[in-house]
Design brief:
Blueprint lengths: L1 H28 L7 H4 L2 H14 L5 H24 L3 H5 L3 H22 L10
Amino acid sequence: STQIGAPVKLMRVPMLGPVILALGMKNNRNSTDRLAVARLMPWFIIGFLGMVILNAVGLIPQSAIAPIHATSTALTIVSMAALGLSVNIRMVMSSGGRVLMAGGLSIIALAIISLAAIYGVLPIVTSA
């Protein structure tokens, strides 16, 4: 799942900055405060862009890449688990049959696609 999830996540990332900046500017326009970068964009976006720049100019040592990657993978897994654990099952169950059916069908579709990728039916996962 991390081999498929990482490219999907990375496809969304280039749009995060402009979208967050635009929303921040829209919300800040209604305020009497001066424009401040800290109010326009969350700190993690600024940190992400900083790491991208550091990596692009070669300032991150090669020996640090593997531990950074492992930490990133672990934190992604923890954040996904946290999202799952924060789901209120009673609220989901009371949402109605259509919502439950859509959720159930999407989980089944995801499982089928994942198994097809794992067993080589889909040429998504490649061995290095």
